[in-house]
Amino acid sequence: MGRGLNQEVTAFLDGIDHPMRAEIDRLRSIMMSAGAGLSEGINMERAELQH
Questions:
Q1: Tens digit of pLDDT per residue, the chain (51 long)?
Q2: 21-33 vs 7-16: helix crossing angle, rounded to 10
Q3: Are 42 and 8 in contact (CB under 8 A)?
Q4: Contacts from 43-47 at CB under 8 Å and sequence distance 24+?
Q5: Rounded to an integer, what distance in angstroms lies between the CA atom of residue 25 and that of residue 19?
């Protein structure tokens, strides 16, 4: 996975067993490497990006 991926989000995604997990992880890596100031986290039982 890419740099800056939040382990809490990774664990959350592990728990939901999404059928498109590989695509989700690829998008996470792309988004997190797109620019400084982005972070990801869990809010209200869902993953989200924060700037």
A1: 445 799 999 999 999 989 999 999 999 999 998 877 888 999 999 999 888
A2: 160
A3: yes
A4: 47/9, 47/12, 47/13
A5: 12
The predicted pLDDT at position 2 comes to 45
Tell me the pTM: 0.80
- Domain residue limits, the chain: 7-50
Residue 38 confidence (pLDDT): 87
5 CB neighbour count, 10 Å cutoff? 17
**Which tokens hold the place of 15?**
């728990």
Contact (Cβ atoms closer than 8 angstroms) between residue 10 and residue 22: no
